[in-house]
């Protein structure tokens, strides 16, 4: 997953004092993933979500955001509310795990 390489670049902190910062980063990244996958499951067009990336003030985060979007939009849109919710939870869990794995 290309996302893991991008996450590694963002959280290459090495001092223990930055553990809270790293965890906050993973929490924020996971929350972003939830929002993006929710938009995906609601059928938001890819172009619309990519337009919102252009409005992000922190352009350094753009590659990470685009990688999360690409991963989310590679997933199918499910029919039932339960399947949609499961897809969102699963995506967020995988994203959080990938982020935390890069911290070790």
**What is the radius of gyration computed over CA atoms, rounded to a whole number of angstroms?**
14 Å
- The oligomeric state is single chain
Shape verdict:
flat
Q: What is the rounded distance between the termini?
A: 17 Å
Number of helices: 5
Structural class: mainly alpha
Query: Helicity range of the residues?
Result: over 70%
Number of beta-strand segments: 0
The tally of domains stands at 1
For the residues shown, what is the average pLDDT?
A: 84
Briefly, what is this?
By secondary structure, the protein is mostly helical.
Annotation keywords:
104 residues, mainly alpha
Task: Provide an overview of this structure.
The model has no long low-confidence stretch (mean pLDDT 84). The relative contact order is 0.21. With 104 residues, the protein is mainly α. It is 73% helix and 0% strand. It is flat and about 40 Å long. Helix 2 (19-41) crosses helix 4 (62-73). The protein starts with a helix and ends with a helix.
